[in-house]
Amino acid sequence: MKQTDFVGGLAKGLRVMEAFGSGQPGMTIAQMSEATGLDRATARRCLLTLAELGYAHYDGKHFELTPKVLRLGHAYLSVTPLPQLLQPHLEALSKEVGQSASASVLEGSEVVYIARASQKRVMSINLVPGSRLPAWCASMGRVLLAALPQEQMLAVLDRSELRPLTPHTKVARPDLLAELARVREQGYAVIDQELELGLCSIAIPLMDARGRVIAALNIGAPAAAIDARDMPERYLPLMRHVQAELRPLLP
Amino acid sequence: MKQTDFVGGLAKGLRVMEAFGSGQPGMTIAQMSEATGLDRATARRCLLTLAELGYAHYDGKHFELTPKVLRLGHAYLSVTPLPQLLQPHLEALSKEVGQSASASVLEGSEVVYIARASQKRVMSINLVPGSRLPAWCASMGRVLLAALPQEQMLAVLDRSELRPLTPHTKVARPDLLAELARVREQGYAVIDQELELGLCSIAIPLMDARGRVIAALNIGAPAAAIDARDMPERYLPLMRHVQAELRPLLP
DNA sequence: CTGAGTTGTGCGATATTTGAACAAATATCG
DNA sequence: CGATATTTGTTCAAATATCGCACAACTCAG
C-alpha cells in the first residue's frame, strides 16, 4: 500500500478507542498516551475530537466512551447477513437445550462473538457480540483453528500465549496439536473447564454452501449441569441439524 | 474548541464507518463518497486505511466492515458498569415473564439499546446492543423523554420526524405531549403497536442513587400474547422490583 | 511549600487533504 | 454490436493541517 493512502489520524483515533477497552472506564490524557504509545499532544487531540463528535465524554479530567460508539459495531451487525441469519437459530437452539448458544468467527488468534443467545450466566465474564477469547483454549476457537491450513494454524499458535487459565487447561503444544487433529477428524470440539472453572462447551464449524468453514457454533453449559463427556451425545444432533440447515443459506 | 485540537482524519474515518451502517454490506468508493459527502480521494484513503488496519475488507471493488469493528463497541460495553450491571437483571426478568427485556439510554433523539435479553423474536428488526429507535415512538424513548426538562424534550420532538410507522402511531404533537405528561405522571409508558404492528411494550425509567433518570427498562411482547392494556398489571410489579433493586447500585 | 506529575500551548518540520486531470471500467444508445 | 457517454478509480503537486517537541501553567500529595 502506498504511503500516502494511509490516514494516520484515523489509525491513531482507532487506537485510542480500542485503548478504552482495557482499563478503567475513565482515562486521562496521560493514561491514554501511555496506553497507546501516542504522544500526549496527539492523544489529547484524538480524545478532544472524539468528545467533539459525541463518541466520548470529557469532564475536564477523565474521558470515557459514550454509547454512541455502539453505532460502529452496529454498522457491522446490522448490514452483515451472517449474524442476522444466525441469531434466530441460536435462540431456538438455546431454548431447546436450555443453555447458552453462541456463534463466532476467527480474527487473528482470537474468536470474536458475532451472535449469542444466553440462557443463564455461567461465566464470570459477560459475553456479548464483540467479546473476544483466545482461540486456542475456546471450543469455537479449536474448531476454527482446526479448519485452517496447517501452516496458518501453527502461526496462530506461535502468536498465542499458551498460559493455563484453569488447572484443566491444555497448554503443552503436542497435546494441543493432537487435540486439534482430533477436532478436525471428528468435526467438533469439547472444552472441559479449560477456559474457566465450571464451564464446559461444545462447538462445531459452520460451513458455507461451498464447504468453507466461516464461523463456529457452540453450546456452553455449567459443569454442574452436564458432564463434558456427555455433551456430544446430548447436543451434537441438534447442532448438526442447525449446521445442515444453515449451510445452503450461507453464500 | 480550538481549531487545531481537531483531528479531521479521525472524524472523516468515523463518518465512513457509520456510513457502512446504512446501505448494502458492500460499498464502493464512489458510493461511500456519496454517502459521506467526502471527496472520492478522501473516502478512498479512509477506506484503504480501514482495510489496512483490519477493520474493513477490500476485494478490489467493494469494501465491507469486518468483525473487528465490534472491538470498538465492546470497548464501551466491557468497561461501562451500567450494561454489565443490567444484563443479569434483564435475563432474570426476561425468563420470569417469558418475554424480551431490554435497557436503553437516550442519545440525541434516539434510544440506544445497551443490553438485552431476548426470549423470542417478535419484531421484524433484530435488536441488539447498539440498535437505535426513534425516541418519540418507543416505550423506553417516551420514558426517557418524559424525564427530560420540558425545554429539551420539546427540542428533541422538534428534531424528530413524526411519521406514522403503523396505523396506531400517535403523531399529532398535542397527543404526544399529553402522552408524555401522562408517562411522567404515572412513571411508565405503554406502546400498543405504534412502532411495529403486533408489538406491544412497557417501559419504566431507571434512576441512580440520587434519583436521576439514566436509562430505561422495557418488556416487549407480541400483541397476540397480551393486550397492551393488561401489561401494567402483569409486568409493572416485577419491573418496579428491578428498578428498586438497581437504584442503590447505580452511582 | 515544595516537587513530582499532569495538562495546555506555540511553533517549525512534516505529513496529509484537496481538487482537478487522467485512466479505466461500465453503461447507454443508435 | 460497436461507439460514445458516463461513471468510477487513481494520480499528482500545491495548499493546508497535523505532529511532536519544548516549555509554561496547573494540580495534588506529602
UniProtKB/TrEMBL annotation, chains A, B:
One of its GO terms (biological process) is negative regulation of DNA-templated transcription. Keywords: DNA-binding, Transcription, Transcription regulation. It comes from the Bacteria. Residues 7-67 form the HTH iclR-type domain. InterPro entries: GAF-like_dom_sf, HTH_MetabolicPath_Reg, PcaR_PcaU, Tscrpt_reg_IclR_C, Tscrpt_reg_IclR_N, WH-like_DNA-bd_sf, WH_DNA-bd_sf. The lineage of its organism: Bacteria, Pseudomonadati, Pseudomonadota, Alphaproteobacteria, Hyphomicrobiales. The keyword DNA-binding applies. Residues 68-251 form the IclR-ED domain. PANTHER family: HELIX-TURN-HELIX TRANSCRIPTIONAL REGULATOR, ICLR FAMILY (PTHR30136), TRANSCRIPTIONAL REGULATOR (PTHR30136:SF34). This is IclR family transcriptional regulator. Pfam families: HTH_IclR, IclR_C. The keyword Disulfide bond does not apply. One of its GO terms (molecular function) is DNA-binding transcription factor activity.
